[in-house]
Amino acid sequence: MAMFLYKLGRFAFRRRRFVALAWVALLAIAGVGAATASTATSSSFSIPGTEAQKAFDLLEERFPGTNADGATARVVFKAPDGRKMTDPANKAEVKKVVAELRSGSDEVASVVDPYQAKAVSRDGTVAYTQVSYKVSGMELTEKTREALTEAGEEAKAAGLTVEIGGDALQTVPETGATEIIGVAVAAVVLVITFGSLVAAGLPLLTAIIGVGIGVSTITALANLFDLGSTTATLATMIGLAVGIDYALFIVSRYRAELAEGRDREEAAGRAAGTAGSAVVFAGLTVVIALVGLAVVNIPMLSKMGFAAAGTVVIAVLIALTLIPALLGFAGKRVQGRKARRADAHKHGKDAHKHDGPESEKPNMGTRWARFVLRRPVTVLLAGVVGLGAIAIPAASLEMGLPDDGSQPTSTTQRRAYDLLSDGFGPGFNGPLLVVVDGGKAAADSTAKEISGLDGVAAVTPATLNKAGDTAMITVIPKDRPSSTETEDLVHSIRDVSGDNVHVTGSTAMNIDFSQRMNDALIPYLALVVGLAFLLLMVVFRSVLVPLKAALGFLLSVVAALGAVVAVFQWGWLGSLFGVEQTGPIMSMMPIFMVGVVFGLAMDYEVFLVTRMREAYVHGERPGQAIVTGFRHGARVVTAAAVIMIAVFAGFIGSSEQMVKMIGFGLAIAVFFDAFVVRMAIVPAVLALLGHKAWWLPRWLDRVLPSVDVEGEQLRKKDAAAAAAGSDSDSGSGEDRELVGV
Asked: Where are the beta strands (DSSP E) in 79-125?
């Protein structure tokens, strides 16, 4: 592989105009496709095989025209102190709002009059009207949302409190400002790392091009493949992360090759052949993690994973081709001023002489590696015990999906939620919809049976369809939707009822979704870690190094989950991160964290340890190989990790609890994995293992394919050239005739 990528890198460098134009053309084609495609809507959400989905499908079949997936809004009214909603003046104001809502948009399906529907609290202080729409919340036009939010302005002026809840106000969280902050931080870190504006600009430029192609392609194909509006957000996040990382690795190795005296074309080829090999396998681990989301068997997640994986593939291809091409355009400006001055002093001398690692000035990576080599047991125990202590809260993990009750108290959704809880009881915000596959007798029997269960506040009379063979029953729980008591009630209804009774509704869907995610976590981990273990075994030609990589990743993820539970479920340091309401951890969080962090963690592992493996294969002692790996890789891995932490941490400032949680979880997980696991635990374990770290049974060595990530064929080429009396390996014409695997 190293020789193939070496030749590809040199080709891209020589034919840089052709390569650059090809990528610009791809970006233009994808952009035109996105611009001409119809606007993407939210993807259809389904959880195949669950009770809630069966009920939902039965409703669509037996109650045509009910539009069960349409958006809903609850406009909640509260009378001034000492007055009631049944007062004539207040009643008149509410009827005005109802009329205004009915005429406010063509997307409105129905508006319920609270006085006809008896939607007034017992004490008469709170009332609400329910608005049903013909389309989902994500598909509502801005005009419809404005009509909804402005409907109660006159009622407010008359003294009523008016708040709005429901999914009609649901929007995709805006992340544009966050992405700009992340890119700005990345630019600063890259300039500090490289000491050159040109070198710093290359990873940013190529990452943006890759994300542009990926996201534009997703937009163009969104309606064809039913890709939701959130798919592009995930692809952007992952694409920026790996795009910057991979380009950073290639540019860093290119500069190192220049420092060893190679000419620019040869340096580009060798950077692609060595660091490029690490990029290929790092990219494969990310693709495995994202495609593995299909294990969960939720179509929306599977599509998101495949789309994001496609963006990662684009990032790898750009790193291997466009980066060498742009390096050809950049010339010597890709080096910092100090490096250019040093190169000028060396001009005319034996530029190809390599003094060896011991003669080079030690950097921070070298000094840290030597410190770990002197105290491997202390560093290992400190890292493992520290992360283990932080991981303890993860044992109390409770999963669920956020509702309006988890919104900040400053939002109208949260205030509407609280008003309904006060006026009608906490369970009123999460009604359960029971679908009975049977006639009136079966429905009445089911309603009576459910009424006797613990945790039930009210059961409405059954509503039959036109054929009279299916009924709907609404059950109001006593407790709030996200409580364990409501979850127990859903299970109780399913246990006492027959096969012809199904429970659905947003609350039941959330419960089934959380259960599906919980059940899928272990199989997903086994698949992703297992496949990556085999892949890393091929890369490192070792059993213990991949095992150490997998165990270290699990430790960092569990520690990150522990931190998330402590902050968002227990409320520790909650005020510091703007957590206003504690509650269950979002159901997607563990699997989402595993997928994203696993990919980034393996990036750092492959790049750092591949350099160690390369040094070890080329004759260095195990300890010295660790030092060499850190001398060349620590600065780059640190820069990549800092960039990712900054990007993810920017999401903590979001007002959306879900976005805030994702940002915190990913940022802390990358911090733990990069700086505790990869920078401390990994070198400590390798130092203790010594030569055993690179042990591989002979029979397994014969079975595994040889991919030459270390660039051994490039070393043999140098040796052959030296034996033939060549005084340069800088890329003569005969190199182009070489045939390699």
From this structure: 108-111
CB 514 within 8 A of CB 473: no
User: What mean pLDDT do residues 689-706 have?
Assistant: 87
State mean pLDDT over 311-333. 91
Cβ neighbour number for residue 273 with a 10 Å cutoff: 28
Over residues 214-234, mean pLDDT: 79
CA 535 to the chain's CA centroid: 22
Q: Could you write out the three-class secondary structure of 478-525?
A: CCCCCCHHHHHHHHHHHHHCCCCEEEECHHHHHHHHHHHHHHHHHHHH
pLDDT category at 626 given cuts 50, 70, 90 is: very high
> How far is the C-alpha of 161 from the C-alpha of 156, rounded, in Å?
6
Task: With respect to residue 354, please indicate whether it lies within any of the assigned structural domains.
Answer: no
672 and 538 part of one domain: yes
- Which of 142, 169, 196 is the C-terminal boundary of a domain? 169
Check whether residue 55 and residue 138 sit in a common domain.
no
CATH number (domain holding residue 47): 3.30.70.60
Residue 562: the pLDDT is 95
292 neighbors 527 (Cβ within 8 angstroms): yes
Residues near 457 by beta carbon (within 8 Å), at least 6 away in sequence: 425, 427, 428, 476, 477, 478
On whether the CB atoms of residues 352 and 729 are closer than 8 A, the answer is: yes
In this structure, the answer to whether residues 163 and 77 fall within a common structural domain is yes
- The answer, yes or no, to whether residue 731 has pLDDT greater than 50, is no
In a domain, 713, yes or no: no
453 vs 475: CA distance, rounded Å: 11
Q: Which of 696, 716, 732 is the last residue of a domain?
A: 696
Asked whether residue 346 is assigned to any structural domain, the reply reads no
Q: Are residues 556 and 630 in the same domain?
A: yes
List of residues 6+ apart from 194 with CB closer than 8 A: 200, 251, 252, 255, 336
- Residue 629, domain CATH: 1.20.1640.10
236-245, 549-558, 649-658, 696-705: least confidently modelled range? 649-658
Residue 283 contacts residue 210 (beta carbons within 8 Å)? no
What angle, rounded to 10 degrees, do the helices at 544-564 and 589-617 form?
150
Half-sphere exposure of 506 (CA within 13 A, CB side): 18
CATH code, domain with 100: 3.30.70
Query: Any idea which of 314-318, 339-343, 349-353 has the lowest mean pLDDT?
Result: 349-353
Q: Which residues pair with 129 in a beta bridge?
A: 75
Instruction: Please count the structural domains in the chain.
Output: 4
Instruction: Say if residue 618 is in the same domain as residue 669.
Output: yes
Domain for residue 620, yes or no?
yes
Residue corresponding to tokens 């493949």: 225
The better pLDDT of the pair 521, 361 is held by 521
State the pLDDT confidence band at 409, using cuts at 50, 70 and 90: confident
Residue ranges making up the domain that contains 652: 365-406+521-696
Same domain, 183 and 300: yes
Residue 119, pLDDT above cutoff 80:
yes
565 and 688 both lie in a single domain = yes
Same domain, 205 and 298: yes
Query: Cα(501)–Cα(651) distance, rounded to whole angstroms?
Result: 42
Q: CA torsion sign, 111 to 112 to 113 to 119?
A: negative
Q: Which of 59-68, 129-138, 563-572, 600-609 has the least mean pLDDT?
A: 59-68
